[in-house]
Amino acid sequence: MSSYVVSARKYRPTRFSEVVGQEHVSQTLKNALKEDHLAQAFLFCGPRGVGKTTCARILAKALNCQQLTEEHEPCNECPSCTAFNENASLNITELDAASNNSVEHIRTLIDQVRIPPQQGRYRIFIIDEVHMLSNSAFNAFLKTLEEPPAHAVFILATTEKHKILPTILSRCQIYDFKRIGAADIKKQLQYICEQEGIEAEEQALHIIAQKADGALRDALSIFDRISSFSGRKITYRTVIENLHILDYDYYFQFIEALLSEDLPKVLLLFDEILRAGFEGDLFMQGLATHLRDLLVCKDPATRSLLEVGEALQNRYIEQAQSTPPVFLLSALNIATESELQYKLAKNKRLHIEMALIKMCYILRAKEAAEQSTSPEKKSPELKENQVREPAKPAYAKSNPRQQPPQKTAEQKKTTPASPLKTTDRNHTPPPPPPPRASEDILSQIDKAVSKKRQKTQQQNTPITTEMLQTLWDAYLDQINSDLLRNAMRKARLEYKNETLHVLVTSPISQANLQQETGLIEHLRKGANNPSLRWEIHIDQEEAAKLKEQTRTPKKKTPKEKYRDMLQTNPLVEKLRLELDLQIVPAGSS
After folding, report:
1. Strand extents, DSSP E, 289-408
2. How many other CB atoms are there within 10 angstroms of residue 279's CB atom?
């Protein structure tokens, strides 16, 4: 049998100082051991692969260690530590609550709690995935957890703290484990490479650390897989091929092509990515991350947020300096919206290509927007001794023969300057401020054109009851609810005083229509009138008629029934007399 041991087990920490990325938990537990302030129940919660069970085992070993170190770490040399390391300790019991979650398993555990330790001070019970216990098991465990024997210590571990009963949480000392940073994971991987004699590129280890998403155990599993494939040398190219990750170089090429408005190169690069087997949403997600990294590189104060290897930092900084902030913000907005709408798109390739085309012309759209909001070009400066002709007043245009009296040269000298000169009608108002860099230029243009078109249509198209009835029927075809469809069919529309009056026959129909907010929005959009109002009333006359139609008819007496029979056939009376029959009231025998 092979003696190979996976890295997650081989390099599992045996002391608190070896735990990666959980210094706040390790230091607290060591201080508790130092001061002898130990709780009888601990709860370790956090994501998977961050060291919860590892810390539970180290704490269990330290509680019975016969000679703790000066740093209050287990010595790993005394009989208790040796027995624990060899899985032969009788004082430590581990229970997997995922497969032992019934009341019977907890009762067996409670019976074991009563037995004192054979050696050492404590009996430690480690229950992993404790949130998997049933409610009955939790209730059976509650009393023992509240008042355990002095020699019993419980260490619970879970990834879903919200599933544990509050009564259990209140009896535990809770420690929250955090996700491990990529830098800490990469440092641990470098240590393992040194121990195993493996040569690995720094960027390759950084990719593995990022792919692990804060879980060291996942990072070690990926590391074992890559090392099995590549042998004693792990390269960046090997890692991205095995993990199916898009190379950073593609994103740098995309930004260069977008800034130079080289649309053919952009589309060809995207086609190359698709042929390599990458999905469009994965590419757009990576492009958005790249734009975010360029944005944080713009300011030296935020460069610490850049989560890439040191070899790539200079390349990011160099490209960030040549990229305008307005481009980064607008492209990032387009990328995130495209990623969100990707699943709804039927032609997914065209969806991504349209987003890339918008990014390609961001700077040109910005220039067009600035020109449209800039003031008119100033006229060339007048030459010396050249007098500008004043603007002709309105009456001069309608009657050219009528001219205002001309002032003499002396009158011009003595006439004071008009104090209202600054508010002259021909005075050009100051231009509006240019759009902020954080606003998407393309969306500004689309909104302005849409608003102008909507206003024009609203002015030219009058609203009538027939128009609203047509829109009402179009919306009716899209309804799936039988109650709402029935209410809309029976409703009667009247448009007057700029308000749509909807007459229904019952309060239930009125409530159903009032809750259907999409209907009024559909009418407003179809009528090109965002301020369209509606009022839903109950038509009392129609409601009374409907009630009369549905009213149960009164039950007729035997005499009334006999009278109806006579009207149908008068011979019934002759038959009754011949047979000497009597009309008996209902209910009599």
Report:
1. none
2. 13
Q: 86 is written with which tokens?
A: 């060899």
Measured CA to CA, the distance from residue 372 to residue 442 in angstroms comes to 14
50, 177, 255 from 395: Cα distances, Å: 86, 83, 59
User: What three-state secondary structure class fits 557?
Assistant: coil
Tens digits of per-residue pLDDT, 163-181?
Answer: 888 888 988 999 999 998 8
Alpha carbons 283 and 269: distance in angstroms, whole number:
11
Same domain for 202 and 106, yes or no, is: no
Contact 576, 551 (CB under 8 A): no
The tokens describing 544, both together, are: 């009374």
Q: How far apart are CA 509 and CA 494, in angstroms?
A: 17
3-state class percentages of the chain: helix first, strand second, coil last, to nearest 5: 55, 10, 35
What is the reported pTM? 0.58
Which residue shows structure tokens 């420690």? 175
Q: What is the DSSP letter of 493?
A: E
Strand partners, 234: 200
Residues 46 and 168 in one domain: yes
Distance CA 127, CA 480 (A): 50
User: How far is residue 299's CA from residue 310's CA, in Å, rounded to a whole number?
Assistant: 17
Side-chain half-sphere of 21: how many Cα atoms within 13 Å?
Answer: 24
Instruction: State the CATH number of the domain containing residue 111.
Output: 3.40.50.300
Number of Cβ within a 10 Å radius of residue 209: 27
Q: Is 300 within a domain? A: yes
> What whole-number distance in Å separates Cα of residue 248 and Cα of residue 91?
52
**What are the φ and ψ backbone dihedral angles of 556, each rounded to 5 degrees?**
-85, 150
Note whether residue 403 is domain-resident.
no
Determine the residue type at 468: L
Q: Are residues 259 and 216 in the same domain?
A: no
Model confidence pLDDT, tens digit, residues 506-558:
888 888 788 787 888 888 888 888 878 888 888 877 777 766 666 656 677 88
Using alpha carbons only, how large is the chain's radius of gyration in Å?
42
* Spatial CB neighbours of 558, under 8 Å, sequence gap ≥ 6: 583, 584, 585, 586
